[in-house]
Design a protein that fits this description.
The protein is an all-alpha fold and about 300 residues long. The protein is built from 15 helices and 2 strands. It has a two-stranded antiparallel ribbon with strand order 1-2. Helix 5 packs parallel to helix 9, helix 5 packs across helix 14 and helix 6 packs across helix 9. The longest helix is centred in the N-terminal third of the chain and has 32 residues. The chain is flat and about 75 Å long. The N terminus is likely disordered.
């Protein structure tokens, strides 16, 4: 049988007309415009950034110095502390957005009065300019004239100097970031919860499961794709955060709320272009090293 079938299979492969093979490769031509745009606007600038991080450069001149920019970056305490602050900021904002976003989504998908209005209120901060939010909370968090501390005084609590105290500055900005960004996490979670078939909840209710058991055994595992999206988006956003921090503290007091993005910006302002480009590369590698393993881990669990 093998003697009879193999030549026929070869004959079948050989007998396929050249016209069909041309049809198979035809759609690949449509990838060329996208590939050119990717190479010009993303690949080439990325390679140039890696190259400039190895040089001491100005707008008109450059000198190759190897890894000196990276060595200087990690030797400077103020610059290296920005790396640590970036990790703290990303973890705090990501964790709070996941917990609060899930809690708000469960509330806003339940049978509550004025549900549509409350959904709009929860999402409203996402629509506001980040710079505007930063300047507004800079006034609200003033240690003596701010509304926040005045409200705490009414109940007998002395509020801290939110943005002027080194131990509070980074956390204060992170809390404002959570306030502004939790609406987006809530919307993602709401989409995940509403996509769960109602039969699962009905079956759990008929089996005598309470509200907590339905949340733990039905909502939480079936909303897993939404949780993955919120974690990855919040983590990447926290690692790259700049505008809110710059509007509220400019990295101060001292360097206590400086993160990688603000450090890079300050080095650019000071004219250390090679050093700041090295900081950009470190930030890029940091995002890759944190996000890609998480992405692989979540996808492995999903499969």
């Amino acid at each position: 049988m093998a003697t009879l079938t193999e030549p026929s299979a070869v004959a079948t492969r050989d007998s396929s007309p050249p016209r069909d093979r041309r049809k198979t490769s035809y759609p690949y031509w449509f990838l060329i415009p996208g590939g050119v745009i990717f190479a010009v606007f993303f690949l080439v600038p990325s390679v140039m950034a890696f190259w400039f991080s190895l040089t001491r450069w100005t707008l008109f001149d450059q000198e190759f110095i190897g890894l000196d920019n990276y060595v200087q970056f990690f030797r400077e305490p103020a610059l290296a502390s920005g790396l640590w602050h970036t990790l703290i900021y990303a973890v705090v904002t990501c964790g709070l957005k996941v917990v609060l976003g899930m809690a708000l989504a469960v509330l806003l998908t339940g049978p509550i009065l004025g549900r549509g209005f409350m959904r709009s209120v929860a999402f409203f901060p996402v629509l506001v300019s980040t710079i505007g939010v930063g300047l507004t909370f800079q006034v609200l968090m003033h240690p003596t004239r701010g509304v926040l501390n005045q409200a705490l005084d009414l109940v007998g609590i002395t509020g801290p100097a939110w943005l002027a105290d080194p131990s509070w500055a980074l956390l204060s900005v992170a809390l404002v970031d959570v306030w502004q960004g939790v609406g987006l996490a809530t919307v993602i979670y709401m989409a995940g919860i509403l996509s769960i078939p109602g039969e699962y909840f009905e079956a759990a209710r008929m089996d005598g499961a309470g509200a907590w058991q339905r949340f733990r055994n039905v909502t939480l595992p079936l909303a897993r794709p939404a949780t993955i999206s919120v974690i990855l988006l919040s983590l990447i956003g926290g690692l790259r955060k700049f505008d809110l921090i710059w509007a509220m503290t400019k990295g101060g007091p001292g360097f206590t709320s400086d993160v990688m993005a603000s450090v890079v910006y300050k080095q650019y302002q000071a004219g250390f272009y090679g050093l700041s480009t090295a900081g950009n590369v470190v930030l890029f590698l940091l995002v890759i090293l944190l996000v890609l393993p998480l992405f692989w881990f979540f996808n492995r669990k999903e499969s």
